Amino acid sequence: MTGWVREGHPADDTTKLATEISAAVAKVCEIDVERVLVVIQPSPARFAVEGGRVLPEPGQEQAWFAGDTA
Fold it and tell me: Is the pLDDT of residue 2 over 60?
């Protein structure tokens, strides 16, 4: 399982996310968690676009949702 996060999130949060995804995949697929590989790849928010808009940096989400940023 691969995933992506915006750079700037705390490393512990990303590790927790990977662990929780691993457990969920194992449960849904009914396999041992030892058979699951999860890789979370970080990159700058500006490298991703959603709905035609560049994603906000971590902590800037409220302004982004309000449409106050590009």
Answer: yes
